Amino acid sequence: MVDDKLAQLNVLIIGKTGVGKSTLVNSIFGESITEEGLGKPVTQKIHKIEKMGMPISIYDTPGLELGGNNSADNLLKEMVKLVRTCNTSGDQSQMIHCVCYCINTLLSKIEPAELEFLKNFIEKTKKYNIPIIVVLTQALQKNCVTELKREIEQEKLSIVQVIPVLAKDYHVDGQGIIKAFGVDKLIDIMFSVLPDDQKDTFAAIQMSNLDLKQKAAYKAVKIAAAAAATTGAVPIPFSDAALLIPTQVTMLMHITTIFHIPIQKAALTTIATMAIGTMGTTFIGKTVVSNIFKMIPGIGTVTGGAISATTAAFLTTALGNAYIKILIKISKGEMRVSDLTTKEGQKILKQELNTQLREKRDR
After folding, report:
1. One domain for residues 167 and 222
2. Considering 183, 203, 223, which residue would you say is the last residue of a domain?
3. 169, 203, 237 — which closes off a domain?
4. pLDDT per position as a tens digit, 66-90
């Protein structure tokens, strides 16, 4: 996997035993993150779950029994202490970036003790401005979900939103299957409230929402296009067009990391050069540029022998958007990673690039 040094993301999951926290987490990230054991204890009851190769930590509160052996008061103190320690450290990688408070919807009303626990947690952590999302898990019965959602919303709590979720398909004996729902919406809400540095991390490691990956990838393309425009602010001679390679390869690395697909940096350099039809180390061959300029009136000149800032930005955008289309195909199983280094794969990439160029011309 390309290492793009994604920022660390930390999520606190709260909920009673059996509420479906593990199922929810694994559905969001598409991997069995929470099935590798309890993780490393950070307090008497809270565990920090990590997965090798993924810049995410899940702080889990197993055994939250408001009326049982785990005292609600003691657990509340531990959670508040954890939040205070993490979010006053001054280290963004240590902070809790989002809280998901899970409530089971099998009962249409929230227990008074649990509601009080939630209120106390919100009140005692409000100074840290951590977004709190209430997740109604196992949302099988519509009437129960509606009633419980209404009850919580009437409390006017300082939370982001109440999201009903059925994290995986539910088989009903003799009646078929209730399809999973709500995870995509939860992912969208989580993405919207995370700090900017953590947004790309979340988009990269969650596996349930391809649209979110595209959104983050297009943002990376815009940043790269702006950088390319800076490079081309003083028109670049064709012979020096390779100056754009570092910007474009960095862009491809970022996009690759967002899609969480294992492609090496060397392969990305090859992909970039071949996509434009280059020879040797020159990124834009004169013949190809000549053909491209015929498609893009007014943004460059062949006779002048130079690439302007607008042209540099346009070519970078076209390459980035074409590459995103290819990674979408790979994500959907329509292509394999190994196809990218074959003649057929290169042909597909070039076709996508030409499509991007034509769409720009026609606007």
Report:
1. no
2. 203
3. 203
4. 555 557 788 888 899 999 999 998 8
Nearest-5° angle of CA 242, CA 352, CA 273? Answer: 20
- The answer to whether the predicted template modeling score (pTM) of the entire model surpasses 0.90 is no
Q: Does residue 210 contact residue 167 with C-beta atoms inside 8 Å?
A: no
Residue 60 counted as domain residue: yes
**324 lies in a domain?**
yes
Compare 67 and 164 and report the one with higher pLDDT.
Answer: 164
Residue owning tokens 């490393």: 40
Give me the DSSP letters along 65-110.
Answer: -TTSSS-HHHHHHHHHHHHHHHHTSS-TTTS--EEEEEEETTSSS-
How far is Cα 243 from Cα 281, in angstroms, rounded to an integer?
Answer: 10
Q: Are residues 66 and 38 in the same domain?
A: yes
- In a domain, residue 144? The reply is yes
Are residue 91 and residue 143 in the same domain, yes or no? yes
Contact 94, 10 (CB under 8 A): yes
Domain holding 188, by residue range, is: 9-203
- Looking at the chain, the whole-number percentage of residues with pLDDT higher than 90 is 24
Query: Distance between CA atoms of 358 and 349, rounded to whole angstroms?
Result: 14
pLDDT tens-digit map of 301-311: 433 445 677 77
Q: Are residues 288 and 167 in the same domain?
A: no
Chain segment 169-189, per-residue pLDDT in tens: 888 777 788 888 888 899 989
Q: How far apart are CA 93 and CA 114, in angstroms?
A: 30
DSSP assignment, residue 39?
-
- Find out whether 214 and 202 touch, Cβ atoms under 8 Å: no
* Counted domains in the chain: 2
Do 158 and 36 fall into the same domain?
A: yes
Residue 278: pLDDT band with limits 50, 70, 90: very low
Indicate if the alpha-carbon torsion angle 244, 247, 249, 255 is positive or negative: negative
